[in-house]
Structure to design on (358 residues):
């Protein structure tokens, strides 16, 4: 089959981890006779430097014209002082919104061989965990009305959290579809003891689940409690559904307890099969260009792309198995180093994964 992938290398470690992902795709392509073409699309800080904006209309159109988008990471201190609408992160928000990618799927699983990298207590880590955070991605405070104004006490700034019933319904369905294939237990995270938007969220999640997915047991958890439960007893979570802002925060926390943020992939999906796939970590400017980055999150994002956008289940499973095998053999990048192990660079780690694929 032929597939066209829009590739956003982005900034910082972006180009290094992109090269890893492309090398893995090419290895799978030659093994299975697939044909991938890549359209390298500028976005983020490098686009600001070249075109004065984080995402050009042309870049957006090229993403839309592709079968899927692979994004490494955007941003860095160089562009931190720019006003909000010109920051590199706007590129990400723009692609998400314009491609209608309302569902962000973030799996967080503790690989037993990385237990020593898990910062939790031994007894908690030994129980393991395997959860999927389903984060709403095109609504809430990220896209609500915001601004500055003069109030009684002088200058004020505001951001608004707004969710429509339809937005909550569709993300609930995505989460329920995932839960149906797993434990049929869904935890919805909100702040319904304070926020009206959360009360509507809660009502809607329950209505959709009860009427359309009667087999699923839904429980609610307040976001502050969820943040605590994630480190106290992560094994209790299977599928979690939450808003854009809460999902942003909780998914970083979930990633850290897997040992390293450098391990976790994500998929952003909409109503059709074109999705955007990206590691959940950022552009790590402090280690950019040093060949230190962990390519695993990006490589696993490719596996998600194969499975969820292209229906290439066998190829996806093979990539995941290759990553597992490499970790099992004790190969480590710096972020997940065991005492006494020699760290591998981004390139060497990628080569080990590719060896497993052959
Ligand atoms: C993420 C990131 C982004 C977000 C930033 C870079 C805008 O933190 O994908 O989690 O907040 O969504
Ligand atoms: Mg985040």
């Amino acid at each position: 089959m032929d597939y066209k992938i829009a590739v956003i290398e982005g900034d910082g470690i972006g180009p290094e981890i992109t090269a890893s992902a492309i090398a893995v795709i090419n290895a799978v392509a030659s093994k299975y006779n697939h044909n991938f073409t890549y359209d390298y699309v500028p976005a983020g800080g490098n686009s600001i430097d070249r075109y004065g904006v984080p995402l050009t209309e042309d870049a957006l159109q090229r993403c839309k014209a592709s079968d899927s988008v692979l994004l490494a990471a955007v941003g860095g201190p160089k562009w931190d002082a720019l006003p909000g609408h010109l920051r590199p992160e706007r590129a990400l928000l723009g692609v998400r919104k314009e491609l209608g990618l309302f569902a962000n799927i973030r799996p967080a699983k503790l690989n037993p061989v990385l237990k020593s990298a898990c910062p939790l207590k031994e007894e908690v880590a030994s129980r393991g965990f395997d959860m999927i955070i389903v984060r709403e991605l095109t609504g809430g405070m990220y896209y609500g009305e915001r601004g500055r104004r003069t109030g009684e006490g002088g200058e004020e700034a505001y951001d608004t959290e707004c969710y429509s019933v339809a937005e909550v319904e569709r993300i609930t369905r995505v989460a329920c579809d995932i839960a149906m294939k797993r434990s049929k237990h869904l935890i919805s995270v909100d702040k319904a003891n304070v926020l009206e938007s959360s009360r509507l969220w809660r009502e809607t999640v329950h209505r959709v689940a009860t009427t359309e997915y009667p087999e699923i047991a839904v429980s609610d958890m307040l976001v502050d409690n969820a943040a605590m439960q994630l480190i106290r007893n992560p094994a209790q979570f299977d599928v979690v559904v939450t808003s854009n802002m809460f999902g942003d925060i909780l998914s970083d926390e979930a990633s850290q307890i897997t040992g390293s943020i450098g391990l976790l992939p994500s998929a952003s999906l909409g109503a059709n099969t074109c999705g955007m796939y990206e590691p959940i970590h950022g552009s790590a400017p402090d280690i950019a260009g040093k060949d230190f980055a962990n390519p695993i999150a990006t490589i696993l994002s490719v596996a998600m792309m194969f499975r969820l956008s292209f229906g290439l289940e066998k190829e996806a499973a093979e990539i995941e198995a290759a990553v597992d095998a490499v970790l099992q053999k004790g190969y480590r990048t710096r972020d997940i180093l065991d005492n006494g192990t020699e760290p591998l660079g981004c390139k060497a780690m990628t080569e080990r994964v590719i060896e497993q694929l052959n």
